## 1
Amino acid sequence: MRFDIITIFPDFFQTVFDFGIVRRARAAGLVEVAAHDLRAWTTDKHRMVDDRPFGGGDGMVLKPEPLFAAVEALTGEVATDDAVAGESFRRRLSETRKRVVLLSPQGRVLEQSLAQELASEAEQVVVICGRYEGVDERVAEALVTDEVSIGDYVLSGGEPAAVVLVDALVRLVPGALGSETSAQNDSFSEGLLDWPHYTRPPEFRGMRVPEVLLGGNHAEIAGWRRRAALRKTRRQRPDLYARAELDARERNEIEERED
């Protein structure tokens, strides 16, 4: 999988991907990550990437011309300047397993299901980092396949969000984690929080590891983990628990023990 990040601060990404899972995936040739300076696609002597918004108001808006030029250069596909033809552009991207992601507070919230969708359907992800008051709306209308937000709060720009997006997707690239089941067992992979984890020593300051985890019975351990994940999700994320697909017996067992 390849990530091309369009930003006005390419140095922000100089070392951030040189650690942990992303570094190992890059070293193994599973993932490529490149940050590109949006100013490289400007045509004026001042290399302007932003301008004042029509209609007045505070702040500046990223201009469409350099963003269109950048995405076209990185994807090898030519976009047009209207929203109707934008559907054709997005269809061509889909056919070649490419996605153009605009990081925006107005976007679809990045949940595990969206990360899985992007990781499974794209071989190249072009990421546009917004700045200032945002991006010219024509970019979203005719150029972008996905608008993505990492949460309901405001950042100074899309760069930190790009790091989150790349990390979330790289974990889902086959071979990136070393274990084929690690990503499957992560929190949110099945709509639940992960079960509690313990390691040595078996007792610490009077707190003991649950006996079932010490016994070596894999069926009993699997059952305990499922119930523990459900109980934890019900306590900490009741919204997720309410959407969980449980049969009546399992739901009654969890709720009777908790109440």
Note: The radius of gyration is 22 Å.
## 2
Amino acid sequence: MGHAALQMVDFRSWRLLALALVAVSAAAHLPGLVVGPSLDAAVFDVVGWRVVEGVPLYGGIWDHKPPGIYLLTAAAEAGRGLVYPWLITWALSVVATAVTGLLVARLLLRAGLSQVAPALAILLVLLSGQYLIALGGGLAEQPATVAATGAVLLVAAPATTRRWMAAGALLAVGVLISVQVAAAVLALVVLAMRSAAPVRRLAAAATGGLAVILATVAALGVLGVLAPAIDAVFTYNAAYRLAAQDAAGALSPLPWTVLALVPLLALGAAGLLAMRRWPEGRSLSLAAAAWTGGGLILLVVQGRFYAHYIVPIMVPLAVLGGVGWADLDRLRQRRRRMTPILAAAGVVLLLVATLAGVAGGLQELRIWVAANDKARAIAGVIHGITIPGQTMLVWGNQPYLYRATERAPALRYPYLFPLTTPGYATPALIAEMRADLERDPPAVVVDAGSPDVGQPGGLPLLIYRPTATEGRELDLLDPLREFVREKYELYGVLQGWPVYRLTR
């Protein structure tokens, strides 16, 4: 649909759609507001908090994502004192998901599918915002997907060289928030190849993207953290991918996710089959197919699947789903007897998706309800045996405990996985961590490596437990155990987590 046709759209309807999408997104994300952040969201929150306090990213506080997500959580931290930072981070996820839905509606309008655009946008937001997929918010994929979708929308119709450059820059921003959106590059390639000047368009997009990436690298260099950034984003992630091959549960969320998304997957498959019958949106459909295929390949290459990885792929699936929905509706109009069959199939698919989403979401929800409730329950005790400004060491992978207690991590690693990952952790790294602890001993050490004393979990501290990890169980941690054994005493077991207090 051309620019003139777009001007004829009733923009009041778009405002109403935007409000509806925000409401649906907020409802879908609501459990996260109550429960608090999941693992990844808690890590991003801690890193943003520490960056705002002046600690160097990667060098002083560590995680293995590109820097974009930490800038967003640091921005959320700017509201601290007025609003709880998690509320801001949660709201960012709500808005990002809603904006993605609105952008998808615009893409469908470009493809001549205005009749199905609102329904597909609402379906997309509802499915991508559910707890199984979004884990209550705070993840990198949601804002990254906004950037990637916006990049494709910029050039979904004939566009100037400047727009192509902006699209490349915007996509690079998305990749610097989450690499899961990298497959959207293929959508830009397809759209460029079907334009009048493909080489010029691709060159413009590449120029915009490279400008953003080089500026980011230069900024990291000026800040003196380029080397640790490379170590985190490249060295660790290479080891992480190899460790995933040994993780028995690496694909455990996949069946629930497929079932929870089955309406969108079915419509997307129908769209692939019907692409030839929709010449007006052919270029966009091909771009969506390329993005979907590239996204699936990216998942396979990573060797590990988490449900939120699928968020960026849901955008091209929704575009293809719009084609499929419109084609099925045309079939229904031609053959009236198909109406009850299609309606029944739609009801069944929605029922399956709802049951799978609820069942899978409850599994994830129980994990973080238990962990975050424990963290909040012991925060008062930690406050009573420490003073503001002192640090703590959480042995395990519960970084939310740092925020619940407002006690900063004693190490640059806010969770234990990097120190137990084969191919990354080394005796020299553990010795460096021991030296850091010796220079500035944390006031308390909390063994949060399992749900309760002796239950399976991460590598034990001073109390034995069987390990139940995800391929990251390299045990070089004896120097850290010796440090705790020499300088700490057991204060008590709080909510199933042993707490050790510094004695000398």
Note: The longest strand covers residues 488-494.
## 3
Amino acid sequence: MIKTSLISLFILQLSFSVFSQGGISFQDMEWNDALTKAKNDGKLLFVEGYVEWSEPCGILEEYTLTDKEVGEFYNKNFVNIRLDMEDLPGIQIGDDYEVVSYPVMLFLNGDGKLVHRGCGAIDSEEFLVLGKDALGDNTLSAMDKKFKSGERSLDFLVEYSFALENACADRSGMVETYFKETSQHDWLNETSWMMINLNVEDPYSDQIQYLIAYHDMFSLKYGKDTVDAKVYNVMLDQLIDIYEGADLTLFATQALRQLMQEVDFEDKDKLLSLANLKVNDLKENWPQYAENALAVVEEQDVVDPDQLNEFAWKFYLFVDNPEQLKAASAWMRNVLTDYPDATYYDTYASLKFKLGEKVEAVKFARLALQAAELEAEDLMHYKAQLKKFESGK
């Protein structure tokens, strides 16, 4: 009887807590039960929201959440649960608390009110600071309350801005409120500049348009390097969005290029090269695209193999200038030194074929086919290319 009771107790403990082994003990509980337990225990409910496909989630769970010191602190001070944010109730919780990135760390009171939050694959030390902040007087909810009550000191707004950023929380409402109640005549003051520098990323916003219009005055007050860095980062982020497919329209790229031309800032030429590259890509102006790609690779010392491969493949498809094809071939030869991948072999072989170097093309097409077989890829394309190069057609 005693033995059976001990086994039952052991099984109960295993089902009640997961992810322990020196780290945080996450309790397997229904959402409402977890809130009730937090209220009854006089503790905050800590929620780690994850998704299976997220690499940052995996890093956090492997290294931070299993840390002994983290486990001791969180197990003592919080009721801890994990939620898959792509399954119920995680989907609803994500909507309720405006979760936009993973992993997310939510600290709630027993009534479900958000007290504090964090996000990302932070290390153990930062995770402990996050938990201690959640138990302190300067939580995100406390800062929200101060801001709504009219607190606008520079030190507070800096702290509040960083807290929102570290929580991956929306800052647009805070920014909109501040600038709505601040006369444009005061947008050059230190507090307004700080708000722009820390929180405004939209190049077409009133604040960035104002910064561009009065670039020289901002530079005199706060240093040209600092102001130029802000303008550069805003433009770069928008270009990244365009390149990653958030906005692929020709109009968007041309509009951004026009905006860049309205202000002088350090490294402007590098961003213009990227913008011109995208414009000519979208317009299918391949001679100009080739010139832009060569400039981008040289100016920005591009070493990313996928990016170089993208450029080089378009050279193979659309560019006829032998010198430009040789340059693209040199990129891919360097790539293959460190990344003997089927796709990269194929691009290099294709460039060699277009340059009339049939022997080299066949050699590397065979290597591409062998690598594709090892990588368990679909072989149809590689076989077709090899046959094409062998026939010389």
Note: Residues 336 and 344 are 7 Å apart (CA to CA).
## 4
Amino acid sequence: MNREQFWDDLKSGKFISMVRESSRGKSLCSSVEAYNILKPLFADEDDIEKMFFIFMNQRNEILTVESLFKGSIAMSAVYPREIVKRIIQLKANAFVMAHNHPSGNPSPSIEDKAITFRTMIAMTSIDVGFHDHLIIGDSFFSMADEGIILSMKNRLRNFMKEV
């Protein structure tokens, strides 16, 4: 396959089902691995924000990779209740959340951090692990690698002690 054909296949979304099938049952160990799995999925419709999830079992083995939300060039509405609903359907024990920034800049916005925290609150209430929130652009930003996920978990833990 030549580069042109590969790029056309990538942009068409042809590889989405291949990624889903080949990743099922594999263990996920790092943000780099999650990025490598997810990056090709954002090639299709790269001008809009999309939110993908890697749902895992208790051994961090991938159950499925799915897109739950789509938006516009600058935002995507995310509803934690829909994430909870899908987790219950799949009997998932943990997940990684990822979305793209069509601008190419993977730096998290205030809104990105806010939805991460709101989602974490929902997941904590049902004892589901929230491993990371990746933002994918020309490169990627991992909220777990940067300590944001741990900081949010600690804030939530401290709040729960006070209640």
Note: The CA atoms of residues 135 and 141 lie 5 Å apart.
